Amino acid sequence: MGVPKKRTSKMRRDRRRAANNKVRVPVQVINCSNCGAPVMPHRVCAACGHYGDKQVTAGKNE
User: Fold this and answer.
1) How far is CA 41 from each of CA 1, 23, 26, 30, 37, rounded to the nearest angstrom?
2) Does residue 23 form part of some domain?
3) Report field, pTM of the whole predicted structure over 0.85
4) Which residues contact 43 (CB under 8 A, 6 or more apart)?
5) Which terminus of the chain faces fewer neighbouring Cβ atoms within 10 Å, N or C?
6) What's the gap between Cα 1 and its chain centre?
7) Total structural domains within the chain
8) Which residue spans within 1-62 are E strands per DSSP?
9) Mean pLDDT for the chain?
């Protein structure tokens, strides 16, 4: 089994972990099918309170 011979420095460890920061994808935004407001996918619309075709909560506009 492979065992490290020397301790990995904090700088080397953090540099390796920082390499994955550029891989992140920006947040996807879709339009609400009811009111057209921008909404993150799979979440209730904050403006009108709809999720898909159903009224789930009372939105800000109501």
Assistant:
1) 44, 20, 13, 6, 12
2) no
3) no
4) 51
5) N
6) 37
7) 1
8) 30-31, 38-39, 50-51, 54-55
9) 87
Neighbours of 4 (CB within 10 A): 6
Give the tens place of pLDDT for each residue, 24-60. Answer: 778 899 999 989 999 999 999 999 999 988 888 887 7
Is residue 3 one of the residues assigned to a domain?
no
Give domain status of residue 43, yes or no. yes
51, part of any domain: yes
Tell me the residue range of the domain where 37 lies. 28-62
* Cβ-contact 35, 50 below 8 angstroms: yes
DSSP 8-state assignment for residue 5: S
